[in-house]
Design a protein that fits this description.
Blueprint: H1 2-32, H2 39-46, H3 50-63, H4 71-107, H5 116-137, H6 143-159, H7 161-176, E1 184-187, E2 192-198, E3 202-206, E4 212-216, H8 217-222, E5 225-227, E6 235-243, H9 249-266, E7 277-283, E8 288-296, H10 301-320
Antiparallel strand pairs: 1-2, 1-5, 2-3, 3-4, 6-8, 7-8
Helix pairs in contact: 1-2, 1-3, 2-4, 3-4, 4-5, 9-10
Length: about 325
Amino acid sequence: MTGLFGLLLLLISLGIGISVERFLLRYLRELVKRTGWKWDDVLFSSLGKVTTIWFLVIGLYMALPSFPLSPSYLSLIKKGALSLTIISVTIFFARLITGLLKVHLEKLRDVLPPTSLFENLTKLAVFVIGGLILVQTLGISVTPALAGLGIGGLAVALALQGPLANLFSGIHIMISRQLKPGDYVKLETGEEGYVVDITWRNTTIRQLPNNLVIVPNSKLASLIVTNYHQPQPELAVLVQVGVSYSSDLEKVERVTIEVAKEVMREVPGGVPDFEPFIRYHTFSDFSINFTVILRAREYVDQYLIKHEFIKRLHKRYREEGIEIPFPIRTVYLHTE
């Protein structure tokens, strides 16, 4: 009967743990989402799954006296329960500390952008501490292991030379703030897109066709990278135009700037306060060429701005009688 009573206690504890996880914690998570404070969201999210383990361990300790077990088996089960408790507490604190740091780093996004690299390093530190506590609690001396790390550290460093190079390159990229998630970049090898994440091993870039480019951090650190979001995401948009030699250049300038201002005001991605301007630069074979300088809020906005500007400028030139000439070549025929 005593064994059945202990088994019943275990089942009741497990049932309470599952109920707390599925109903009480879920209700509390929905409740705290209505508050403007994010720290409580992190706390209740971190409790997922581990509460069931805690209730199970409590039930196990309550039920142990009911089982007719030898002292050696009781000691073994208690060590297993203690190990499970330390592991679950370590998981809880890893989630909690990582979540709190993520909330804090959101406020410091411009100083230290949140990335998977920082999150993984934080989790690793917590798990290392938890592992040392677990080993020490089980009565295993960590001193010989720590001494062995000093001897084998060089061999491990040589064996992990590639991964360590990627790790430290990722830390350098993140701390230097040369790249951060959300930046639009172009590599010297031709790949370009938005930086999605920086992990301990590589940096992920999402291209405009929605493909992912995976670049090892050590490789990225040695490449020439153009960051179109630094020092600010706004950038100049240059459009090349040519008009006939018979055109009134003052009129061309006035009409072109009027169209450019209209595009800046009306097209999404344009900068309404920017004053567009043009610069004549070339007497070419069949036209006088100039550059129209517009401005976009970020790199990808330039495509729609150019699209709308060319359409509207072509229509306006036709209305104003301004000619965009076809390529012309004069051929002289010599007859004897």
